[in-house]
Specification:
The protein has ten helices and no strands. It is mainly α. The model has no long low-confidence stretch (mean pLDDT about 85).
Length: about 200
């Protein structure tokens, strides 16, 4: 879950959250608040008094308000910092960032509240589903060594890395073009989703 949150944060904001190692105290507080707020939101489905608690600012809803403030403060700080960097910097490389926030800022949208809503929606929708799929994928690879070997061989062949001595160096070889050519890996992940759907049931109102 932490690894996926870090990845989603990189995609959404283009910054390193590092909830895995907890090197950032702000990032650590955000990660805890994010998970707690998600759990509290789910609890509202069974807590028939949550609206009253929210109105009176008591119990779980009082805690929810505190967690939400931590999340908002952290996200708004990132958004404002990115806006200032992109407006003041003459470094054109900042304008080529592929994270979601930078793409919005390259357009005309710079409303912090709108940006927060869009980006947090992406993180909320992608975090648990991605983490669950990765977990089942690794589990299935362990159960089927022959498939694991084929995935590894495809990675090595397309990345032109016969010997993998350092993970960081290997990761550098995995460009978007290389990843798109990994048809066997794609098939294995797709089969994982068929057997263990990330969202097997949805609730609609």
């Amino acid at each position: 879950m932490k690894a996926t949150l870090d990845s989603m944060f990189q995609v959404a904001f283009g910054v390193e959250l590092d909830s895995m190692c907890g090197s950032s105290e702000e990032g650590k507080k955000f990660s805890i608040a994010f998970d707690d707020a998600s759990a509290m939101t789910l609890f509202r489905y069974v807590d028939i008094l949550w609206k009253i608690k929210k109105f009176l600012n008591i119990g779980s809803e009082a805690s929810m308000k505190k967690k939400t403030k931590i999340i908002n403060d952290f996200v708004f700080k990132i958004i404002h910092t990115k806006i200032e960097l992109m407006e003041s910097s003459k470094d054109k490389s900042l304008m080529k960032r592929e994270d979601i926030l930078s793409r919005f800022l390259k357009g005309t949208e710079n409303d912090p509240i709108y940006l927060r809503d869009v980006i947090l929606s992406v993180i909320i929708a992608g975090k648990d589903t991605t983490a669950t799929t990765f977990s089942w994928f690794i589990y299935l690879l362990c159960k089927h060594p022959s498939v694991q070997d084929k995935v590894v061989n495809e990675l090595r062949e397309l990345a032109n890395a016969k010997k993998i001595a350092n993970f960081a160096d290997f990761a550098e070889t995995l460009s978007e073009e290389v990843v798109e050519r990994m048809q066997y890996l794609h098939a294995a992940i797709t089969e994982t989703l068929r057997i263990y759907p990330a969202v097997p049931v949805t609730a609609t109102q």
